[in-house]
Amino acid sequence: MRLRVEFTTEPFDLDEAPPHALVAREVIEAAELDAVDVGPFGNTAEGGADAVLTAVDALLRKALGAGATRVSLQVNVVGEGDK
């Protein structure tokens, strides 16, 4: 099964990326995912179910530990042709 995760961390800071946002970005970029797209207002990544779920677990733990007060995420099952 292939999954797509979309997430944001809060609180936002438009002047400088907060530590929780940097940690979340590092987790996603280091994970064995493909189609990774990180940005100031939202992030997406796709991959196999195990890789996405492992990355989401690490993302939540590390972002909250780095000061995030809210993490919004959505996980969707995608077909191979939905890339």
UniProtKB/TrEMBL annotation:
Specify the domain of life of the species encoding this protein: Bacteria
Protein name listed in UniProt: Thiamine-binding protein domain-containing protein
Q: Which organism is it from?
A: Streptomyces siamensis
Higher taxonomy: Bacteria, Bacillati, Actinomycetota, Actinomycetes, Kitasatosporales
